């Protein structure tokens, strides 16, 4: 774990870094405020902020990760802000179009995509793994501005309803 502190009993205290400690503190305050400040979620421990940027090459993005101790399983969350000037460039527009195409395709059992029952996002779906993948994804679009991509490693979920139930409280904790 990258972000842990040791107490006198030598057990880890999981902590989410404050905005003041991040390299992107001046630029990403908006995205930082959005993500749930939940240090432990259903066995997943906050691990690190992996990517925090606002530049002409990648746009406004915040990516962070949780993990399950002593495993290689992660829950990775990416938040993009489509109001960033990058998404007005040709490269940025093509990325937005790709993301929006995911939602326009709708849900389809052939593609193994299923509707999410959450009420936070205007549009959202869950993608179940194919035969070779060992992860599920949640895709959410909020007010056509914020795109959230969440990946959970492992093969613990067999049904999209299980994923929805697992993520319900986490999704409610987003602060749009």
What would you say this structure looks like, in words?
By secondary structure, this protein is α+β, with helices and mostly antiparallel strands. It has one domain (17-92, 102-172): Protein Transport Mog1p, Chain A (3-Layer(aba) Sandwich). It has helices spanning 29-34, 90-104, 160-172; strands spanning 4-6, 12-14, 40-41, 44-53, 60-67, 74-81, 113-115, 123-127, 135-142, 146-153. Strands 3-4-5-6-10-9-8-7 form an 8-stranded antiparallel β-sheet, covered by helices on one side. The protein is globular. The model is unreliable at 1-10 (pLDDT under 50).
What's a concise summary of this model?
With 176 residues, the protein is α+β, with helices and mostly antiparallel strands. Helix content is 19%, strand content 33%.
* SSE run: EEHEEEEHEEEEH
Give the second-level CATH assignment, the architecture: 3-Layer(aba) Sandwich
Sheet/helix structural class = alpha+beta
Q: Could you estimate the helical fraction of the residues in percent?
A: 10-25%
Oligomeric grouping of the chains: single chain
DSSP E strands, number: 10
Q: At the third CATH level, what is the topology name?
A: Protein Transport Mog1p, Chain A
Question: What is the rounded Rg?
Answer: 17 Å
Averaged pLDDT: 85
In total, the number of domains comes to: 1
What is the CA-CA span between the terminal residues?
Answer: 28 Å
| Unreliable parts | 1-10
Strand order in space, largest sheet? 3-4-5-6-10-9-8-7
Instruction: Determine the strand fraction and express it as a percent band.
Output: 25-35%
CATH class: Alpha Beta
Give the CA-based shape.
globular
């Amino acid at each position: 774990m990258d972000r842990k502190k040791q107490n006198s009993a030598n057990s880890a205290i999981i902590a989410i870094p404050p905005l003041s400690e991040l390299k992107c503190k001046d630029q990403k305050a908006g995205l930082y405020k959005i993500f749930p400040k939940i240090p432990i979620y259903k066995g997943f421990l906050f691990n690190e902020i992996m990517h925090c940027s606002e530049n002409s090459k990648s746009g406004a993005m915040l990516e962070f990760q949780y993990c399950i101790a002593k495993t290689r399983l992660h829950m990775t969350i990416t938040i993009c802000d489509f109001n960033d000037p990058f998404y007005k460039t040709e490269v940025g527009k093509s990325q937005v179009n790709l993301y929006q195409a995911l939602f326009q395709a709708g849900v389809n059992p052939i593609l193994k995509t299923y509707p999410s029952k959450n009420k936070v996002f205007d549009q959202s779906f869950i993608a179940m793994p194919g035969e070779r993948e060992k992860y599920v994804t949640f895709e959410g679009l909020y007010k056509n501005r914020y795109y959230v991509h969440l990946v959970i490693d492992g093969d613990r979920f067999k049904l999209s309803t299980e994923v929805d139930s697992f993520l319900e409280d986490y999704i409610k904790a987003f602060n749009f």
